[in-house]
Amino acid sequence: MALYAAAAAVLAGVESRQGSIKGLVYASRFQVAGLGVRSRAGVLAWARPPPQPVSSWPRAEREAAVRAGVRDPALLRGAGRRDRQRRPPTRGEEAAAASGQGDGRGAAGSGRESLLAWTQLRTVHGVALLGRFSEMRVLVYELLLGRGFRGGAGRWKPLLNRHQARLKAELARLKVHRGVSRNEDLLEVGCRPGLASQVPRFVRVNTLKTCSDNVIDYFKRQGFSYQGRASSLEDLRALKGKCFLLDPLLSELLVFPAQTDLHDHPLYLAGHLILQDKASCLPALLLDPPPGSHVIDACAAPGNKTSHLAALLKNQGKIFAFDLDAKRLASMATLLARTGVSCCQLAEEDFLAVSPSDQRYRQVQYILLDPSCSGSGMVTRQLEEPGAGAPSKERLQALAGFQQRALCHALTFPSLQRLVYSTCSLCQEENEDVVRDALQQSAGTFRLAPVLPSWPHRGLSTFPGAEHCLRASPETTLTGGFFIAVLERAEVPSSVSQAETSAPEHIPSAAPKRKKRRCKAAAAPSAPPRT
């Protein structure tokens, strides 16, 4: 019963706009015996119903459905015997949910399914009473679409058992009335996955532990078919089954069909793979710090970009990573340990409070700034936050004000040579407007660097040079929504010595060969790697 109570509390929090489903699940104190604190991310993970034909329903339910007007045996319901044997969430799913990664498993996936259930239950005829009782609504979902009651269901169980045939018949009647055969089709158009379901699964190879060739060989031995390097977006759209490609732009990025689940894959659990959208890989790639550099990751959690920076640095140099959220930093520390990052210093500190004159940062030449934003480009946002539309004008103003202060602050570091500003927002106020204002305040010290001239989606033409910015979206780039601007110093400041501003030398050519031998041993074991 405690599980249902925890889910009900999350539902109540979502409806009172206290936060997103993923955030509220992770913030909950609920624990499942034997799973420990990781179970927070899996509180709602039981709700993934497989389809089952009406003809397989028990006799009483089938007769009730017939009385309700259900004639087509292809109509589906979600409560099946297979559901009752569903496994609990795995460590990989929970870790991915806690760190903000993943393809919908863990907290994010359970949120989508719970949203589906709650949206449907609100529209079922004759059960308006459920609007007042979050706990009962969770139980009705389990009865109609889930695995049935697990353990005790408290005071509601006898009542629901008496009326379960009527409830199921009403759900079937609603489908007939709407002219749909699937539970998912009851969702409002704005809440359907749509283009999100077409975005491929991007997998970044962690070059701190392995290399692309060895990972490709490993997947081939597992029965996957490697199709070579993609040449266009059409190649990515055409991916199906157990086929995968190498991304045409990033040599360490593999592309699998949409909805491919790799959370339980041994290479992911061992930190050899990072489940990261392609657009999210671009900031570190475009910052491109050479090994030995000092880098600031200003708003670092959950850590995917930080681990990418460490891979580009080959763990040589320093990354100063800042974030104010202690829980996110704890998850980030776990991710960095799993991925073999050793050059990063985490600090629970506001980046705006970091002094550019601090001697610790006098050699910082590269800054990655990915500040808090509206998240309007996230393909799963509508599913995680019911009813979430465009952010309000007030919220956009507050976010843009913080983003501009952070960007202008970053540009004051004396040795800074290159900065990448990125958001997962589609709003001009958080993107082009912030960059324009920061460039104006820099008085010609910094300029926009032209990058990736072949990238199909450019910045909005709101000021001269905005075409050097990059945008991404499911429609144009088959990725999540994103914005990226690369700023570079227009001239070397006279106050900085040549020794400090010169780029660190790359490691000798012999080092990569030794690295390749090590990564072959790590990525292609005879047995699945251990975590």
Provide a descriptive summary of the structure in words.
With 531 residues, the chain is an alpha/beta fold. Helices cover 37% and strands 12% of the residues. It is built from 19 helices and 15 strands. The strands form three sheets. Strands 8, 9, 10, 11, 12, 13, 14 and 15 form an eight-stranded mixed sheet that branches. A five-stranded mixed sheet has the order 4-5-6-3-7. It has a two-stranded antiparallel ribbon with strand order 1-2. The longest helix is centred in the first third of the chain and has 23 residues, at 156-178. The protein is globular.
Number of strands: 15
- The residue fraction in helices comes out at 25-40%
Name the quaternary structure.
Answer: single chain
Global outline: globular
Q: If you compute it from the alpha carbons, what radius of gyration comes out, rounded to the nearest whole angstrom?
A: 25 Å
Structural class by helix and strand composition: alpha/beta
Q: What's the mean pLDDT score? A: 75
Our count of helices gives: 19
Q: Main beta sheet: strand number and arrangement?
A: 8 strands, mixed
User: Per DSSP, what share of the residues sits in E-state strands of 2 or more residues?
Assistant: 5-15%
List segments where confidence is low: pLDDT < 50 over at least 5 consecutive residues.
30-54, 67-132, 494-518, 520-531
Distance between the termini: 33 Å
Produce the secondary structure layout.
Blueprint lengths: L1 H14 L5 H7 L24 E2 L5 H9 L8 E2 L13 H8 L7 H18 L10 H12 L10 H23 L22 E5 L6 H10 L3 E5 L3 H5 L5 E4 L6 E4 L9 H4 L3 E3 L2 H10 L6 E4 L6 H10 L4 E6 L2 H13 L5 E5 L15 E6 L11 H4 L8 H18 L7 E6 L8 H10 L4 E3 L21 E3 L1 H4 L4 E8 L8 H4 L8 H14 L8
Parallel strand pairs: 4-5, 8-9, 8-11, 9-10, 11-12
Antiparallel strand pairs: 1-2, 3-6, 3-7, 5-6, 12-15, 13-15, 14-15
Helix pairs in contact: 1-6, 2-5, 3-7, 5-6, 6-7, 11-12, 15-16
